[in-house]
Amino acid sequence: MKDLLVSVFLFTLCTGCVESHKGLDVSGYVLEYGTLDPVEGARVYLVGGSAGGVYGPNWNLVDTFITGPDGKYSFRRSEEPVIVALYVYADQYYDIIEKAVKFPERKQEIDIVMDPYAWLKLNVRIVDFNPDLILRYYGGGGTHGNYLLGGGEINELNLIQGNRYQRIAWSATVGNNMEPFLDSIYVSAFDTVYYEIQY
């Protein structure tokens, strides 16, 4: 009889454990790339929906969470959307879409790392005038295709990703001869670094 009572108790306990995992239970931390410091004030949007048709999923905003000083967010809901994603936004950070909630019915811990803003102040100038010279530069953050003909100067402030080395490439072309150059510079978050290209 005692063994029967223990078995019933364990079955009830285990059944309760399974029930507690039904629905949506997702939590984690929003962190800064490079430092892994918590991002306070990040707005985490929980979206869910069905698979949809030829145009992709039908998304709906399910819930919103704003992180505190510890960067933690948490969502717990009884319904089970077929598809779930996390969209995160924070001031002076690049937007991020996290589509890693693969099994909405299971409890999951998902940390989200965001890229902080930084700025590259780039000065490009040709020292010696040459009418046949074309100087192109490709700065950090996707800046590309800017060029100088013959001589002159360009100053640009570019928004880039911080807490990492950014590649800076440029080339000088005279006639059929092209000479490539490549360098890198470390950029801290929320800071401006200066880089000068002379030719």
Mean pLDDT level: 82
Helix percentage range? under 10%
Proportion of strand residues: over 45%
Rounded to an integer in angstroms, the radius of gyration calculated over CA atoms is: 26 Å
What count of helical segments does DSSP give?
1
Shape: elongated
Q: How far is the N terminus from the C terminus? A: 92 Å
What class would the helix/strand composition place it in?
A: mainly beta
Runs in which pLDDT lies below 50 for 5 or more consecutive residues are 1-21
What composes the largest sheet? Answer: 4 strands, mixed
Can you write the helix and strand succession as a string? HEEEEEEEEEEEEEEE
Number of strands: 15
Protein model, in words:
- By secondary structure, this protein is mostly beta strands.
- The chain is 10% helix and 58% strand.
- It is built from one helix and 15 strands.
- The chain has one helix spanning 2-20; strands at residues 24-32, 43-53, 56-66, 72-77, 83-89, 96-101, 107-109, 112-114, 117-126, 133-138, 146-149, 152-161, 164-174, 177-187, 192-198.
- Strands 1, 4, 7 and 8 form a four-stranded mixed sheet that branches. Strands 3-2-5-6 form a four-stranded antiparallel sheet, with no helix packed on it. The chain has a four-stranded antiparallel sheet with strand order 11-10-13-14, with no helix packed on it.
- Residues 1-21 have low confidence and may be disordered.
